[in-house]
Amino acid sequence: MARIKLNQNLIWPLVVLLVAFGAFWLKPWQQKPQETISVTAEGKTQVTPNIAKISATVETKKPNLDNARRENEQKVSSLVNKLRELGIDEKDIKTQNISAGPGFEIQPYPPIKPTTNQVSTTLEVTIRDFKKSDTIIAALTEQGATNLYGPNLTIDDQTLEQAKSKAREAAVDAARQKSQELAKLSRRKIGKVVKISEQGDFSIPPPIFAQGAVELQQKASQIQPGQNEVTISLQVDFSLR
């Protein structure tokens, strides 16, 4: 009986070892890796800009710098009030730059000395209703803005995200078609999507600029938004079968 008991004590560790050994080889990671195909594709969509940004500079020259500063502040204040009357929200009027210093004119003999003092303030005005663009541009020049720069045509966040979503859908469709063509060449078929990754930032063409108050005033139609193209690039992995 002692002998049988001894044999049982030896068998149980052996059984445990065999079970552990079998589990090791049956683990999923020991199975054959899944075959995939990876492609990169672009999706594009057209979107109409709905925001125009114009920079306007108000400048004042006076012999006395402090007098120039006070007069320039009055001009800017009057301009801001006019913009608010036209329906421009306070958050859409932003000060870009303020500068003050001596001014110089052409002088026949050196040394050149300052002949005046000048103060300038540049505001960025965001126009969200293009129907008001003519009135707003006219108000800028009437209220003393001597230099206008723009328009910088862009898209609000909500519209941009909607456009990017459409571009992503187009990119996935293009990736599927491309992968099907490649798989067919090797007499295979694609399965489900395994992984999708976006390749960097989306791209959108730079805005169109028209510089100078005279150029803006001479245009029959002040702002023509046209269309921008939003592009998304994706890398998509499909399983192969």
TrEMBL record:
Signal peptide: none annotated. Residues 160-188 form a coiled coil. InterPro entries: 26kDa_periplasmic_antigen, SIMPL/DUF541. Pfam families: SIMPL. One of its GO terms (biological process) is DNA damage response. Gene3D superfamilies: Protein of unknown function (DUF541), domain 1, Protein of unknown function (DUF541), domain 2. Keywords: Coiled coil. It comes from the Bacteria. This is DUF541 domain-containing protein. It comes from Candidatus Curtissbacteria bacterium RIFCSPLOWO2_01_FULL_42_50.
